[in-house]
From TrEMBL:
Membrane topology annotation: Peripheral membrane protein
Subcellular location: Mitochondrion inner membrane
Domain Tr-type G: 64-250
Record field: catalytic activity: GTP + H2O = GDP + phosphate + H(+)
Descriptive protein name: Translation factor GUF1 homolog, mitochondrial
Residues spanning the membrane: none
Alphabetized Pfam families for the sequence: EFG_C (PF00679), GTP_EFTU (PF00009), LepA_C (PF06421)
Function: Promotes mitochondrial protein synthesis. May act as a fidelity factor of the translation reaction, by catalyzing a one-codon backward translocation of tRNAs on improperly translocated ribosomes. Binds to mitochondrial ribosomes in a GTP-dependent manner.
InterPro entries noted in UniProt: EF-4, EFG_III/V, EFG_V-like, G_TR_CS, LepA_C_sf, LepA_CTD, LepA_IV, P-loop_NTPase
Any single Gene Ontology cellular-component annotation: mitochondrial inner membrane
Length: 631
């Protein structure tokens, strides 16, 4: 049995998709666990930290007065803006609070204009049906990310809901993530309320979108709500539809307490804050609870999907979540070498808020001690690095991302490879087979671009599975593609050959055999483990040549000649050299201004900290980042 925690708030109604504070029973615990009632009250930039007392007594809401729902959509179709309007409408946030996309709280979300974390808000709403007396409802809303890399966030959020608003842009119509999110919600047995948004746009064509929703998902045109989250048009019908169409939570209040831990984050002042969904039973202030799967002694053990129950009762644990399948692996190393401990702490805290990242220690001769992390995609990896830097001040160097491969040798042994450096360059036994992961990709695009996209998929070793017309102008394509071919720049290429009009989504599929080789990069004859990569044999020469060229452009001239080579086993397939020269940072510094000279030398010293020395060659931080783009 795990450690016990005591509830500091009362939650009566069952299956509430929000949270309650627990106080750790031992006050001197280093990592207290806090299960926090999140209210979108207060108008601070991060209302989670203000943790104000709710102004309404939650216990007055029986199950039938509660609705738990998510907002799901393709990227940029207006989920966060709609969430803003609903929160304003219910008085949860002030109108014109000055910060659009209120629930996009992370700096990375504001800078990139995308949602990467699902966010929860609780709203109170007085529903008035014709002449009947108004009746109060408690609505728990979860705003979810749109990008394919974050669909794990969506599926977890849906587990705490009974319904979803499926938002579709009135001009763009159904896109790839609309399809993916519809099926996630449908397979979770949620009630789907279709909402066509952005009807204020001059190019809006709601009738065409209604027809698409009917033909693709069998959603009746009569059930579709037409709104503009920007102007507020039609918004008054959204919450009544939520109340009328989405069923109340089905939990049994007098059963033993079971709560599902569906999200968590680390708060500097309170420790780990867990988001729970009360599936069955009732929780009262002062109740003691335990965690089924983990002992919960450290932040690492706030395990998403765990069941929380009343201490000393016996309950069947909830099914939890499907394990995450990591698509991309990359080494993460402290940029200044000395920061391993700091990086370790930052990773622990950040993975508490992003449980979909896997972390394992590894060592590189070039980069020292670091971690091998598994991500759901390249954007996910990028966002994770940015969050490490912005939220924890940790600068990292990441190695070339790789997908997980399997190799079989002539002695019958098999090797699973998440780090190309761990694959022997000159193995004792011959490789007799190798396998790579594939995905099933869905692409929706205007018909005039079909030819270009078919060529692109053929170049990426894709196999066509489906080609259908959604309506007169739009085509739906399905391809099986090697994961490796899509993780780096496929989406950029797709956007460029379709002038930005294609949308793309994928789900993982089985492994397939493939002719793979390890490509080593050598500096003055010494292999740099952090730059090793695994590529398809046909592409090895092209990639090798590009990597050598890229490295040459990033490594500054040194006091001696630097030879850069790319090799497969002992065969060199590309090479170049950087001639010797000492970089004189004072070269442009005419005259004798000593303070300016000192400043320049200081700056050079600072820059050196972010260099990695491989043998005798300094490789700047930026070179590692740029090389990602080639491979
Ligand atoms: N014209 C118009 N623009 C809108 C409307 N709703 C949202 N937008 C704009 O569409 C863009 C995307 O809106 P968001 O709310 O961030 O979309 P999202 O679906 O949350 O995006 P992700 O979280 O990144 O998937 C923003 O520039 C909004 O201002 C609308 O009803 N009309």
């Amino acid at each position: 049995m795990g450690s016990m925690y005591r509830a500091s708030k009362t939650l009566k109604s069952s299956k509430q998709a929000f949270t309650v504070f627990f106080n750790s029973l031992k006050s001197n615990r280093r990592d207290p666990i806090c299960i926090g009632l999140y209210q979108a009250y207060g108008f601070s930039s991060d209302s989670r930290q203000s943790s104000r007392e709710p102004t309404i007594d939650l216990t007055q809401f029986p199950s039938e007065k509660i609705r738990n729902f998510s907002i799901i959509a393709h990227i940029d179709h207006g989920k966060s803006t709609l969430a803003d309007r609903l929160m304003e409408l219910t008085g949860t946030i002030k109108k014109g609070h000055g910060q659009p996309q209120y629930l996009d709280k992370l700096q990375v979300e504001r800078e990139r204009g995308i949602t990467v974390k699902a966010q929860t808000a609780t709203m109170f709403y007085e529903n008035k049906v014709k002449d009947e007396e108004a009746s109060g409802f408690l609505l728990n809303l979860i705003d979810t990310p749109g990008h394919v890399d974050f669909s794990y966030e969506v599926s977890r959020s849906l587990s705490a809901c009974q319904g979803a608003l499926l938002v579709v842009d009135a001009a763009q119509g159904v896109q790839a993530q609309t399809v993916a999110n519809f099926y996630l919600a449908f397979e979770s047995n949620l009630t789907i309320v279709p909402v066509i948004n952005k009807i204020d746009q001059p190019t809006a064509d709601p009738d065409r979108v209604k027809a698409q929703l009917k033909s693709m998902f069998d959603l009746s045109p009569d059930d579709v709500l037409l709104v503009s989250a920007k102007t507020g048009l039609g918004l008054e019908y959204v919450l009544p539809a939520v109340i009328e169409r989405i069923p109340p939570p089905p939990g049994i209040s007098d059963s033993p307490l079971r709560m599902l831990l569906f999200d968590s984050f680390f708060n500097e002042y309170k420790g780990v804050i867990c988001y729970v969904s009360v599936v069955d039973g009732m929780l009262s202030k002062g109740d003691k609870v335990s965690f089924a799967a983990s002992g919960m002694r450290t932040t690492k053990e706030a395990r998403i999907g765990d069941t929380i129950y009343r201490t000393k009762t016996t309950v069947e644990p909830l099914p939890g979540f499907k394990p995450v399948r990591h698509m991309v692996f990359s080494g993460v190393y402290p940029a200044d070498g000395s920061g391993f401990e700091a990086l370790s702490h930052a990773l622990e805290k950040l993975t508490c808020n992003d449980a979909s990242v896997s972390v394992a220690k590894e060592t590189s001769t070039a980069l020292g001690m670091g971690f091998r992390c598994g991500f759901l995609g390249l954007l996910h990896m990028d966002v994770f690095h940015q969050r490490l830097e912005q939220e924890y001040g940790t600068q990292v160097i990441s190695t070339i991302p790789t997908v997980p491969y399997t190799f079989e040798y002539s002695d019958g042994s098999k090797l699973k490879v998440q780090n190309p450096a761990s694959l022997p360059s000159n193995p004792k036994y011959r490789v007799i087979a190798s396998w790579e992961p594939t995905v099933i990709a869905t692409i929706i695009l205007p018909s005039e671009y079909v030819g270009a996209v078919i060529n692109l998929c053929a170049d990426r070793r894709g196999q066509q599975l489906e080609y259908t017309f959604i309506d007169a102008q739009r085509v739906f394509l399905k391809y099986q593609l090697p994961l490796r071919e899509i993780v780096v720049d496929f989406y950029d290429e797709l956007k460029s050959v379709t002038s930005g009009y294609a949308s793309f989504d994928y789900e993982d599929a089985e492994y397939q055999t493939s002719d793979l080789v390890k490509l080593d990069i050598l500096l003055n004859g010494q292999a740099v483990d952090a730059l090793a990569t695994i590529v398809h044999k046909q592409k090895a020469y092209r990639v090798g040549k590009e990597l050598v060229e890229k490295l040459k452009s990033y490594i500054e001239r040194q006091m001696f000649e630097v030879m850069i080579q790319a090799s497969i086993g002992s065969k060199i397939i590309a090479r170049d050299t950087i001639s010797a020269m000492r970089k004189n940072v004072l070269a442009k510094c005419y005259g004798g201004d000593i303070t300016r000279k000192k400043k320049l030398l200081e700056k050079q010293k600072e820059g050196k900290k972010r260099m990695k020395r491989v043998g005798s060659v300094d490789i700047p931080h930026e070179a590692f980042q740029q090389i990602l783009k080639v491979s």
